[in-house]
From TrEMBL:
SET domain boundaries: 61-178
Domain Post-SET: from-to ranges: 184-200
Pfam families: SET (PF00856)
Main localization of the protein described in the UniProt heading: nucleus
Taxon lineage: Eukaryota, Viridiplantae, Streptophyta, Embryophyta, Tracheophyta
UniProt GO MF annotations: histone methyltransferase activity
Record localization: Chromosome, Centromere; Nucleus
Name the UniProt record assigns to this protein: Histone-lysine N-methyltransferase ASHH3
InterPro entries in UniProt: ASHR3-like_SET, AWS_dom, Hist-Lys_N-MeTrfase_SET2_plant, Post-SET_dom, SET2_Histone-Lys_MeTrsfase, SET_dom, SET_dom_sf
Amino acid sequence: MYLIKRRTEDDGIFCSCSPSPGSSFTCDGDCPCGMLLSCCSPSCKCGNSCLNKPFQHRTLKKMKVVQTAKCGKGLITNEDIKQGEFVIEYVGEVIDDKTCEERLWEMKRRGETNFYLCEINRDMVIDATHKGNKSRYINHSCQPNTEMQKWRINGETRIGIFATCDIKKGEELTYDYQFVQFGADQNCHCGALGCRRKLGNKPGKLKFSSDAALKLVVHELAASSPTMKGFLHRKNVCDTIFC
């Protein structure tokens, strides 16, 4: 659901795939478009039989939301999933950076610790807090069995979750959140071998207090646009957090 003007961009990718040897499909596992994480365009010679349209032709996997022992709600698969298969799309409200910042301030005020924000690209964020699907219940693991991928579909960026290994029925679905930790450390309870013990605890990632992180966000917004800088000063945001 878009809460901002829907944007599509010409990514310069046109489907010019040629048939794979011995295959009845033009677009097979070695499809050039797929290698670029781009779904084939309507001009694809395969038509409706194209194998490189995981978002358009996706078969919904059977999944169930469960209560985990230490990580709140989680998501398990009710069927076997093969490595490389499309699992689910990460969906929610598509908002801009300004709205994202406002929501973060409000979440901080309410003392919330669970966030369902996923950056699509510059000035576009998916917020699955209020409107989303089962993908928001996928927990973190330091050794996950799925990963997020950004795909281009007719000039639009969408987020898909794909299996990185064969997953058996009944296993919990996980991916590596790979986020920058703001504020106090959060313990990781994934139980994987080589667990990093703390969420967001990755080499080279900076750690900020919540206030410092918000100051950084506002500073970058003010620096990026004279209009935004004027808006923030009118709202006394800059004066409040930089005093």
